């Protein structure tokens, strides 16, 4: 049974119970979609919207998965004052040891290592010297690591996507609320220089009424997907199992930030369709030796997925995914308002009334006026960091929130809403591209949440 249909059955039973016992706030939360109905959580667990971290001088971090991404983020963390890496886990001992050596080379104490198999992170999360557990494992391990961390009472953050099913999404929401611990998506693209400049322009009203955005993950990964190491060991598998928009969050996170999703708006429903498949099959034919085990694989995911999301406030979002065809990299990252338009790759804007008429202006020309203060403060330190500097800015900002006792820029509701198009796109396509409702993971709290998402565009750092 699909995630949603099972939930539908549970929901109708829960609905009757909830109607009888739920406070008005919760009843109001269940306005438009029976599938979203959830009985109030026993014990009155509260929303994690706007909940601050506790203050601390030193931030003690554990990393589960010390492959390419885990070590890259570790490198950013080691450059930040007051960070201590207390534990590392990887199923490959050599990778954990390489990461540990990075810590000692940086003059930090050697972290404890957990390399005794796929579930050794369950031992790691029980340590009492960890403030935050970060995972950079293959996708199928993200939810299990987050689940274990929350059950052990730890704040945690995952690489993208945080979950691969609707049930996993709900489970993370409920565990985060029960534990009163944050469960975050480590969405570095929300901290890109262009993205934060555009966010400031949005907040200052340059775009007028926001109407439409475009988000994507368009990246030729064919060579990486066919390697016999690193992501080649696991990232082809989803293409043999599911037809879906696998990697929605790099595009959708920044766009959700522009639109204030969960701050007065939310994703309402989506439709999805995929092209046929050719990229992996043709690459294999051209590059793989005939005796390769990869010849037994059948690729069931369409190459180019195009989904459309409509928000409750009536905004539309195009969401695309293609990692198996030749192309320059793009996350689209486009925004249309009633007074201006932004298109990325390369970053450029047109603001109505600009002298010279309907012509693009490079975003860089507006840097003096609209640069985000976080980038103004960190651009020198971020210069050589991962993904054009955004990885350092993300890591710095997380540590800052943990140290200063601030609420994180994004929360568990954002993490799951940005990840859930993976299973929802699959469900839509199974039903002939039918519209599929997004669950309201905030249970209505999005309507009253006003504190802006993301790093403040007016604060000074
Ligand atoms: N945000 C970004 O810009 C970005 C960039 C690259 C990758 N990623 C994401 O980061 C994650 C990791 O990707 P990667 O490129 O580092 O892949 P990788 O294969 O290089 O690393 C994954 C690591 O996890 C380890 N591992 C596997 N199962 C484990 C388990 N049960 N417990 C502990 N360790 C386990 C592997 O041994 C490996 O070292 C993926 O989710 C990927 O999508 C994000």
Order of strands in the sheet with most strands: 14-13-12-11-7-10-9-8-15
What characterizes the major β-sheet?
A: 9 strands, mixed
The CATH class designation of the largest domain is Alpha Beta
Strand content: 15-25%
Tally of distinct domains: 3
Q: If you average the pLDDT, what whole number results?
A: 91
Helical percentage? 25-40%
Quick tags:
single chain; alpha/beta; Rossmann fold; 3 domains; 36% helix; binds nicotinamide-adenine-dinucleotide
Characterise the protein shown here.
This protein has 17 helices and 15 strands. It is globular. It is α/β, with parallel strands linked by helices and 461 residues long. It has helices at 3-21, 24-29, 68-78, 93-105, 121-124, 142-151, 166-179, 193-203, 222-225, 237-241, 249-259, 279-287, 367-370, 373-382, 390-404, 412-419, 421-430, and strands spanning 59-64, 83-89, 112-114, 132-135, 155-158, 183-185, 210-218, 267-274, 305-311, 316-322, 334-337, 340-343, 348-351, 361-362, 436-437. Helix 3 (68-78) runs parallel beside helix 4, helix 7 runs antiparallel to helix 16 and helix 8 packs parallel to helix 11. A 9-stranded mixed sheet has the order 14-13-12-11-7-10-9-8-15. It has 3 domains: 3-36, no CATH class; 59-187, Rossmann fold, CATH 3.40.50.720; 190-388 and 412-447, 2-Layer Sandwich (Dihydrodipicolinate Reductase, domain 2), CATH 3.30.360.10. Bound molecules: nicotinamide-adenine-dinucleotide. Residues 64-70, 89-92, 95, 118, 121, 136-139, 141, 159-160, 188, 230-231, 387 line the site of nicotinamide-adenine-dinucleotide. The site of nicotinamide-adenine-dinucleotide has 25 residues, from helix 3.
């Amino acid at each position: 049974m699909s995630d949603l249909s099972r939930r539908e059955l549970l929901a109708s039973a829960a609905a009757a119970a909830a109607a009888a016992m739920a406070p008005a706030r919760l009843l109001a939360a269940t306005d438009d979609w029976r599938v979203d109905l959830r009985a109030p959580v026993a014990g009155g667990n509260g929303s994690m919207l706007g909940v601050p971290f506790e203050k601390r001088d030193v931030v003690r971090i554990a990393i589960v998965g010390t492959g390419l991404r885990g070590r890259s983020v570790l490198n950013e963390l080691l450059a930040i004052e007051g960070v201590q890496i207390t534990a590392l886990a990887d199923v490959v001992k050599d990778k954990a040891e390489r990461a540990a050596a990075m810590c000692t080379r940086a003059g930090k104490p050697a972290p404890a290592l957990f390399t005794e198999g796929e579930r050794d992170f369950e031992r790691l999360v029980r340590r009492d010297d960890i403030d935050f557990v970060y995972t950079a494992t293959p996708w199928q391990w993200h939810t299990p690591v987050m689940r274990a961390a929350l059950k052990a009472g730890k704040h945690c953050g995952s690489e993208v996507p945080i979950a691969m099913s609707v049930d996993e999404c709900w489970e993370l929401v409920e565990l985060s609320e029960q534990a009163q611990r944050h469960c975050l998506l480590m969405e570095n693209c929300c901290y890109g220089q262009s993205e934060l400049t555009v966010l400031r322009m949005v907040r200052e009203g340059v775009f007028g009424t926001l109407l439409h955005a475009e988000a994507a993950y368009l990246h030729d990964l064919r060579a990486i997907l066919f390697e016999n190491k690193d992501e080649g060991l696991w990232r082809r598998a989803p293409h043999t199992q599911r037809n879906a928009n696998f990697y929605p969050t790099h595009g959708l996170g920044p766009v959700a930030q522009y639109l204030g999703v969960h701050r007065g708006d939310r994703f309402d429903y989506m439709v999805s369709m995929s092209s046929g498949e050719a990229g992996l099959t043709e690459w294999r034919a051209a590059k793989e030796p005939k005796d390769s085990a990869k010849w037994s694989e059948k690729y069931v995911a369409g190459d180019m997925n195009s989904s459309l999301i409509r928000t409750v406030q009536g905004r539309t979002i195009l969401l695309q995914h293609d990692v198996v065809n030749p192309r320059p990299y793009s996350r689209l990252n486009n925004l249309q308002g009633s007074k201006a338009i932004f298109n990325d790759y390369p970053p450029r804007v047109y603001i109505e009334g600009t002298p010279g008429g309907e012509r693009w202006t490079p975003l860089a020309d507006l840097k003096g006026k609209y640069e985000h203060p976080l980038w103004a403060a960190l651009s020198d330190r971020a210069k050589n960091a991962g993904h054009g500097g955004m990885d350092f800015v993300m890591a710095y900002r997380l540590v800052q929130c943990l140290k200063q006792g601030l609420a994180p820029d994004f929360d568990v509701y954002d993490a799951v809403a940005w990840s859930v198009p993976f299973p929802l796109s699959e469900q839509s396509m199974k039903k002939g591209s039918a519209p599929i409702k997004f669950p309201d993971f905030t249970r209505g709290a999005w309507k009253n949440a006003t504190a802006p998402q993301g790093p403040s565009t007016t604060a000074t750092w």
